[in-house]
Input
Amino acid sequence: DQQVKQNSPSLSVQEGRISILNCDYTNSMFDYFLWYKKYPAEGPTFLISISSIKDKNEDGRFTVFLNKSAKHLSLHIVPSQPGDSAVYFCAASSSGTSYGKLTFGQGTILTVHP
Amino acid sequence: DTGVSQNPRHKITKRGQNVTFRCDPISEHNRLYWYRQTLGQGPEFLTYFQNEAQLEKSRLLSDRFSAERPKGSFSTLEIQRTEQGDSAMYLCASSKRQGGQETQYFGPGTRLLVL
Output
């Protein structure tokens, strides 16, 4: 049962344009969502997060949007840069459990062309 | 560097051998997680420690796997009688709960190849 899904395995964008990465979830108990970026042979690097009490969170070029009714979140990167090329994972957790176990999507490979 | 560190970074072993990985979390973090990632998939939760107590184990963690965090600082993950299906990236993360939410920070991982 894939509780967190990233339906686009890959995304290709021109430098300077917007990158939009999408993520859907099924577990209504999830109330905290995170995006991680991963380069080959490295561990995931935390990018940005959002609590379910918000619908938007910004940090520099990165903005995460949360639509609770649709159980959908998205990560916007503006403007995209070649150094953003990596695998992006969305992850979710529930404060209803006693710990912050993360459930990850399968990842989306982002390629930003110069 | 005060990030999460993992050793070794790479491990090649023969089927049936035992292997042990180490994770050193960020010093003030009391929570430590182990995940496993295979090719084309996101990381999957294996187990979790709060201080030295192991509070949760995934069904993915067969009885050949054992994890410890003896003094609530570093942690070890041991795999006994390795199988080819154990080949994966093993990731460690640490966190500290703040304001009801927590962000996990990951180490570089240990890539295991079982021949």
Q: What stands out?
A: The CA atoms of residues 31 and 52 of chain A lie 5 Å apart.
